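Supplementary notes for students who missed Thursday's class. We covered one full example, reproduced here. Read the sequence, then the structure, then the short commentary at the end.
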Amino acid sequence: MQQYYSGYHFIGANHALFNPTQCIFFLSEYATNRRFKNGVLSNNLQSFQLLDENVRMGKSVLHVLGSLKEAKLILMQLFSTGITRVQSHIRPAMNYRNIASPVHRTETTYHESWDVTLSFMYYHGMIAFSQQSLKNSSPREVVIPNAICSEQLLPLVRKIAQTYESEMVTFLTTPTETNLQGIIWSILGSVELQNEEELQSVVESAFALFCNSLQSPFSIKVEESSDKAKRSNVIVSTKKDICIIEFKQVKIADLKEYQFTIILNPFEYQLWCSQFKLRTENELLQLELTFQHANNFTVSDHVNQAIEQVMIHGNLEKENNPNKTIHKFVVVQVFHPIIVKKVQ
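Structure (token representation):
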């Protein structure tokens, strides 16, 4: 019962709470249904058999969740890493218009939309605070509380994974710049990211989700760097290959030419995206950055630094896996366009 019906941690509660309606269903079935009881005692019941259909998450609720911009990344993180984080706090009240059509495209409103989506999930019992986070005065870590919730969200997660399945198989079969770029754009879709940690997280989560939720023909291992000085962000390991991917992201304010640019509304955001899409890769690489003390430090220099990092890790991986082919990539997002470089 703890595995399937508990795990609800709320602010002010000292212990995880059980879902009372599901518990009543379980105890009633256990007391009156011999087959159900035998299934429980022999550990031979599927998750869906332990769910009271009367309190299942409604199709309309799941449909709304599937239509939310940030839900894709949130679910990918929850099912691949087991956890995600509220940017500020769970909203005490929500305007449906803000859920269905969130106002976007500044860092503040991006975080707002993220929290509104998590609030929607929270009030529908899909997520709860982690036990560890409740030790803080302002808890932010949220998790899927139990196996019953996971069972109901899994079809939506599989649907997300299937949207980039063909690109993933293509890349893992033939690890090229073009194929990696195809995966990234397929994964990102309409998701908009604020920093390189989020860029890394969404791609890392996608690889893990692909492996865990679909019948993948590949043996994939995804690791996050523990030593930032020596290790790259994401390592994807198959039976024959190891792909190392180093991520960097450049915001529009990081570019010297645009350092005082402030994007106030969705129209301006789309306008800037359109302008940046017109730039060639070479033009993007020549843009000067603001976050280095050296003069004339460009996106190209930033890429070269990432190449040095991934080269060091590639040599280490080759020593540890001499029979595998090592593929090294650098991924740099310059505001909106993505540059992918395969390092020879």
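Commentary. Confidence is low (pLDDT under 50) at residues 225-232. Residues 163-343 form one domain. If anything here is unclear, bring it to office hours.
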